[in-house]
Each structure stands twice: as C-alpha cells, then as structure tokens.
Amino acid sequence: MSIDTGTNEAAVSPKKTQILFPLSKGPVLGASIDASGKKVKYYDKATGNIFSVALNGSDLSTLSSASLSGLVKAFWSPDKEKVISYFEDDKQTKKYLHNYSSGQSTLLNTEIKQAIWSPDSKKIASLTYDENSATSAVSIANADGSDFKIIFQTRIKDISLEWSAVDKISIITKPSGLAEGAVIFLNPENGDFTTALSGLFGLNAKWSPLGNILLYSATSESGKNPVLSYSNQFGQNKTSLGISTLADKCSFSQDNRFLFCAIPERISENAVWPDDYYKGMIATNDSFYKINIETGQKNLLLAVDAEKSYDASEIFLSPEEDYLIFINRRDGLLYSLKIK
Q1: Cβ(208)–Cβ(215) below 8 Å
Q2: Which of the 8 DSSP states describes residue 113?
Q3: Which range has the worst mean pLDDT, 16-20, 135-139, 230-234?
Q4: In 143-212, where do the E strands start and end?
Q5: Which strands sit side by side in the sheet containing 112-117, from one edge to the other?
Q6: What are the two backbone dihedrals, phi and then psi, of residue 315, each rounded to the nearest 5 degrees?
Q7: Distance CA 69, CA 46 (A)
Q8: pTM of the model
Q9: Integer angstrom CA distances of residue 265 from 148, 268, 285, 291
C-alpha cells in the first residue's frame, strides 16, 4: 500500500540546500549530541571506541580508544557525563553505570531489565520483573545508587520506561499489532499513576519535550496500517495525522509545534506491525518530512533516494534544530540531514 504524502495541499517542495551527511564509518550505538551542542558522539559498535563528529560530518575524532567487547546498548545521561551501558556475554546481559567525569563504573543489579535517566541526570529509574510473584516493579534511586525505593508494581510483564519530564515516568506496554497496549504515567515522588491510553493495538508512543503531548501510532486489530496520531497528556483530544508511520520514527521540535518524521514509501500489507518490523523481518524505505501539528502542513525534507534506502531509527534533533540525526537500520550507520 502506497503512503499518500501528496494529498496535503500545503505540502512544500524541499530546498536545494538540504543535504544528507554520513557521520560514521561503521555501525554505531548510543548516538547523542555532546555537551557543546555542536557535535554528535557515539560508540563504534564493533570496538566500543567513542567518536565525536561535527553535525555536517567533518572533524571526526576519537574520544576513547578503549575496547568494549560485547557492548550492545548505551544511553547517555542528559548532562552527557554519565552512561548506562549494556554488555552481552555468554547470553547474559550486564548493565553498568559509568561516570566519565570520575572514571567510576558501577555494576547494576542483574535483575534490572531496563534503566533510564531522569531529565536532570540526577536519578535513574529501573525496571525489574520477579518470576515468582509475576510482578514488574519500577524503582528510582540517585545516580550513584543511593536512596533506592520501589514506587510502582504491576502484573504487566512486557513494559518499558521513559522519564519524559521531571515529574512524570511513563510505562509503555510492548508494542504488538496482535495485542492491546497502554501508556501509563506515574509520579516518581509518590507512585501515583494515571492511564493515558489503552485498548489500542500496535501501540507505540513518544512524549513531547514539554510533556503535554503524547504522540502515538496504532494499528488495526490484525496489526495492519500503523497510523500516527496525538493526544494531550491525559489521552484526551485524540487527533489523527493521517500518516502511516511509527511514533518512534519521529522527533518533536522543542516547542512541541513540529514533528520531524521518517515516513515509509510503502507499508507492507503482509506484515504484522510493528512486530515484524522490530524483529528485523521487514525494512522500510523512508522519506523525511517536517509536519506542523497545529495545521497538518507537511514539508518534504528528503525524498526516497533511488540509489540508497534509508530506514530511519533513533531519530533526534540538534539543539538548534538545524540537523536531524538518525541511524539507518539497513546498515547501522549514523547520518544527519540538514534541515535549515
């Protein structure tokens, strides 16, 4: 099924000055804007070395040549001084919290399934699952591991966490086009929770930077045709954008007014979305758009490339919103798209 991205009469053709830049020579992990806001730093997937590169692909340099064997995930703290890294060894995953300022590394509890940073980098939230009690628990602690406390428990097993605002931790069920999903947000201070969305198949969600808009994609009950929509933080005032893509293929502008999205040229009618996509059974061929949430206007930033396909993931904007950075799932390489 073709994606109709030309029906919006307000769509604008791309400018000639917009250029796509390769930022890495090999597959990457943990890409993030550095503290200067002018460069991207990332781990080389093969070696674990850390590199820094300007947003236009120039000035590539090595920040660390330490070999990190088995590194599979890395999540920088918002202040860019600390990182939570996942290592796989003999089918076991170990998670470390490393402070690059002090040089100290801390092995996290092996029962932790996921650990995330608070927006101010001062705390971490962690997710555990107890097989005996069939209970998932959300806990918070200081970045050094002190003042640990459990704030929420649930019987739902397959969930993930996102700390979208200082006073809001999101619990999102594992996206599946064959099961209903939900988004719950809770107060990290007292554990009070509110269900924002529920009863949607294929639910995939992302919060806006200000925490007052919830972007989400959902499918039919058979996992077909993922459609992008948004609501307020309480799941009210739902509005469809009429675009077939996944929520995690988009990034918000800082003022919440615009979305920058990778939109597939075609959505496979034979696949179950997003299950088959996340399993790597299918890939997309994306064009890139800037979308005004208030008016629905779509500006084409980069059309589908006839010579090279881009299946964009882990999309984020530079602080000045002049570059869109993403990893191409087809080759694992890091790219930036100049949008101003």
Answers
A1: yes
A2: E
A3: 16-20
A4: 149-154, 159-165, 168-173, 180-186, 193-201, 204-207
A5: 112-117, 123-130, 135-142, 149-154
A6: -80, 135
A7: 8
A8: 0.90
A9: 46, 10, 6, 16
**One-letter amino acid identity for 59?**
D
Q: How far is residue 210's CA from residue 188's CA, in Å, rounded to a whole number? A: 17
Spatial CA neighbour of 326 closest among 307, 312, 340: 312
Tell me which amino acid residue 258 is: F
pLDDT at residue 1 above 50? Answer: no
Asked if residue 233 lies in contact with residue 194, where contact means CB atoms within 8 angstroms, the answer is: no
Is 84:93 a contact under the CB 8 Å cutoff? no
Three-state SS across 243-284? Answer: ECCCHHHEEECCCCCEEEEEEECECCCCCCCCHHHHCCCCCC
**Cα 296–336–313 angle (5° rounding)?**
70
Average pLDDT over residues 92-106: 90
Strand partners, 22: 335
Contact assessment for residue 277 and residue 271, using Cβ atoms and an 8 Å cutoff: yes
d(CA 254, CA 320): 9
Nearest in space to 171 (alpha carbons), one of 140, 147, 205: 205
Confirm if 335 and 326 have CB atoms less than 8 A apart: yes
DSSP state letter for 35: T
Sheet with 312-317: strands ordered across? 20-22, 334-338, 323-328, 312-317
Tell me: cis bond preceding 274? Omega within 30 of 0 counts. yes
CA distances (Å), origin 225, targets 96, 108, 152, 163, 222: 38, 39, 34, 28, 9
Q: Torsions phi, psi of 308, nearest 5?
A: -145, 135
Pick the closest to residue 302 from 328, 268, 333 (CA basis): 328
The reported pLDDT for the residue numbered 17 is 56
Q: CB under 8 Å to 4, separation ≥6 — which residues?
A: none
- Distance (Å, whole) CA 316 – CA 246: 14
